[in-house]
Amino acid sequence: MAGIRAEKMEANRARLISAARKAFAEKGYAAASMDELTAEAGLTRGALYHNFGDKRGLLAAVVHQIDTEMATEARKQAAKAENEWDAMLTEGIAYIEMALEPEVQRIVLLDGPAFLGDPSQWPSQNACLEETRKAIESLIVNGIVKPVDAEAAARLLAGAALNAASWIAASNAPEQTLPKAIEAFSTLAAGLLADKDQDAGR
């Protein structure tokens, strides 16, 4: 019985997240109606409160899902790179490029920070930060990156990627803003390269 109950609860969570994701993308978090999205999921407000506490808790779950998907896609792109440095740079650029997606723009980059606070405190962002820190540590050991503090470098790189994506999301001309953001991000990142690798990073 406990297993069946857990499966039902997980199914209800998934239905609510799916309905909320659609509503938040189409109307924005503030304008999305809890009654409408719970009806869309075929559930009640009570189910929403039971699973997420409140509407903000539901937004956090939706942001976590999308942000995690973004990180997964960015890692897939990075896996195609020829070396460690290019992999880390590609991952950051891939994240920035996803800022062109309307769902990402509205939910993760605009409503997320507005209603959930500092993205650096989100579990999904912390997971990305840890991956970046490990990558930088490896690059330092291999003499590709200068011997800087790995956590500090990871936080600055992650922050630069997130802010670039946020800039694109808020821009009146996202398609024109994207190449500017990528060029600046790449140039900033190249400053971490050891002197002998500076040319390769350009």
Automatic annotation (TrEMBL):
Residues 10-70 form the HTH tetR-type domain. It holds the Pfam family TetR_N. Residues 33-52 bind DNA. SUPFAM superfamilies: Homeodomain-like. InterPro entries: Homeodomain-like_sf, HTH_TetR, Rv0078-like_C. It comes from the Bacteria. Keywords: DNA-binding, Transcription, Transcription regulation. PANTHER family: HTH-TYPE TRANSCRIPTIONAL REGULATOR LMRA, TRANSCRIPTIONAL REGULATORY PROTEIN. This is AcrR family transcriptional regulator. It comes from Martelella mangrovi.
